[in-house]
């Protein structure tokens, strides 16, 4: 078994894009092969450290990664790949970046790309990316998150391109006498179903992330779904809008759930913690990225017959689903040979399986053949075009093992639903200003929402001004 060193990093999440289908992909060249813009760098023996799996990933997921690494090293015998366990955490990422402890290939939220580029923290990988057979075929609105103002590429959209959605436990719905094939489509229905589930089963009907930036992220998602935003651009000046009525409405929703007795009122639930609680059967519904099923399978014991359900986040008053995802980037101190190898790995691990039939099948068969099997076919928004995404699913149809029949509430609308971009400036600071409000509301029956949001807005505006 290949050794996976743990790198303590960062999770939060989101992006700034309006989904735009890219042009159709051209026929790919040799599977997994990126271009060779530097010539000599290609044959030089080189070692790269790369972001691997979450620290909670099980042995099957690690085996699947090891097999892909072995195949890559067979394709490129001059490159040695050293995977590291990796989780992007807002609280520690800056220190790891400044201290030079990141792997050569690392992952960041889409929204952080522009800031890190402006700070000179990412390697220029433009020539290597453009030399890829599909270098011109990215969804342009996604790729912009990894480019500077001149169009130079420093990072590429890599995985987990999602819209926030509602995840639910179908078994708990059935036990409460609810139809799991008819999940809630409004927030009022979510509240009613949560109460019924709690009353009938004794298990919390709903939970929300509340820990650190993830708590602010999901509050923003709730506000976006109700037609609100956490930041506005007024004449070129960014203004914090943390007192937006939609934010208050979602906090009131959480407070109402608590009064109903149906909320899992834990202030220590971050992204990983809420996944674990859901996988452990402690709650019936929560919101997170639409792709989270992969993590639930890899780290929380969820299987195709577990009873997982996925549906679109409820929307009202012109609201939409907050969208997000992950960029793959390369450390700025990487050598040219390492940058060349890094982009080859990014191509191999993240992207070629989306473009090339043989690579798609190889990846899907390895994941499906792991013990236990890893998720194949989890719904994500396309890094390239909608047409190519659907073609990819056709390529791997024999290996798809996710319960797509239980995800139609999301997949039926995923290409048509309105998407909301993340705040453009001081995103993580705004989330960090909001999560204490979430914690107060779900733990204190007498929390003053207006006063809490007023204070948070002042903190948020200060952060915006400092970042502008």
From TrEMBL:
Gene3D superfamilies: Periplasmic binding protein-like II. PROSITE patterns: PROKAR_LIPOPROTEIN. This is Sugar ABC transporter substrate-binding protein. It comes from Cellulomonas composti. Residues 1-21 form the signal peptide. Pfam families: SBP_bac_1 (PF01547). Keywords: Signal. InterPro entries: Bact_solute-bd_prot1, SBP. It comes from the Bacteria.
